[in-house]
Amino acid sequence: MIDLRDKSDLQVYPISEGAVTIEFGKTVDEDIVNRVNAFDRLLQQKAMPGMYQTVPAYASLTVFFDLLTLFNAPLPGKTGFDKARAYLLGLNEQTSGFEDAGQSEIITVPVCYGGVFGYDLEYVAGHTKLDSYEVIKLHSEVVYKVCMVGFIPGFAYLGGLNPALEVPRKATPVKVSPGAVGIAGRQTGVYPLETPGGWQIIGRTPLRLFDAKRSQPSLLKANDMVKFEPISLSEFEKYSGG
Amino acid sequence: MKIRIKRAGLMATIQDLGRHYYLSQGVPVSGAMDGLSAQIANLSLGNDANDAVIEFTQSGASFVTEDDMLICLSGSGACLKTEIRRLPLHRPLFIPAGTNLYLENAPPGSRSYLAVAGGWQVPEALGSRSTYITARFGGLDGRFLKEKDILKSTGRFTAATTAIWNDLKGNAINYPNWGVARDLFLPGDLKSIRVMRGREFDWFDKASTGSFFSAEYVLGHNSNRMGYQLVGKPMQRAIEGELLSTAVTPGTIQVTNNGDLVLLMADCQTTGGYPRIASVAAVDLPLCAQLKPGDAINFKEISWKEAEKLYIQHQLELRKLAVTIRQRYS
Q: For the domain that residue A155 is a member of, what is the CATH number?
């Protein structure tokens, strides 16, 4: 159970005329991530008047809405922002706590590590004083949690990287391919599109992380669980061919 | 109704009022940079405010009408001309088939919006017709318009659109004696941008926040649909610290680690990790959309409450405009 009551640290502030952010904390912390996601699920069930979408982040949830609809809703307050805050804090108060997400299904992402796809694997091994196989093992044995999606469509920030794999970002971002798997600091993730990226690239997945033609275009969503599965180059090519 | 593009000009794309239901998957809002002008172009034709329009940046584009057409150009990036005459903006225009039209230079703005009776026909992608170039979807094949592109109307006319068409059609260019007074939707000073304090406003020292509201900022050349580089005195931090990535939105003004200002625009990413000094009032985003590199602006502080009030007034005025045009042709 996650208790959302009596959290005096809950801050609500506007980021535009049509969006408010609820801040649950200021640190990357698994409990806070869980709280953000629990509140998000609650809000999906009991949508705020005029609500379009929510954007969960590490320690905040932002609610986007149509101001006119919200403004005309029978909620306490004289402004749309007051009404949004009243609704969100009210939701927080009325809720005595609710079930945690429980065990989400684990999404397996096959990765061909090293070689032409993971051209920074040697650097990572050198920096962490591990050998390449240990890097692959440490990266692929963990079940990660999607803390948030942002930066570019379908880019999931994964929490749970083994601290032994901490490496610095590149000084200058370089162009990466879609499917490139990177690590930097305490983070890991997969680049969905060709884009400049600053993370160290250790492999590539044949899966499409983002496809506008799918009903759910982003393969990964906040609160999903993710596991990387090492595959060989020939297996990678089979995926790409099929 | 269709047109053939002869010259696409700079970065011409199909846009509507944006994509609001995929933000949680990292998909930007996109949509017309100057949503006001896009709506005026549509409403002038009796269209839905959210119908697809062509966004042209500055001048240089030209196209030919392949059928008799009912179109409207709004915005302030260019004027609309035939070989021999200049045509009015912000009002419905009947143009006979085979007419060459040109977008020519008309300072002071940057972007123009071409609407067609019924809206331009492109498939919806993720609930919107807006082009998002970075991920190559939306609009016309997720790309900029180019020479020889043929763009068609959906052919789905409202009663008002049909009435305007019947009123204007003939053998020659024709338009009514009314037009939308776009200027009435805008403040007097187009270079004074109203902003509200951002969440991290107090992270900057007094001298920096003071100059934020008094100094001029110049739009840098590294400015596009994703964001604007605002060149001015760098901001100095009073509080060190890093912001945890959180949602951002068009209008957010971020301060990079060098102290430079970046104003996020229509195609901006959905989350960001730079401190937010301010947000541009939604009603002034159309002014920002019309800025050109080299233009100088300043920021004027208003409260969040005032910004809301302005936004609601603006929306109600646009609704009134839609009703007025519909009633005129019923």
A: 2.40.100.10
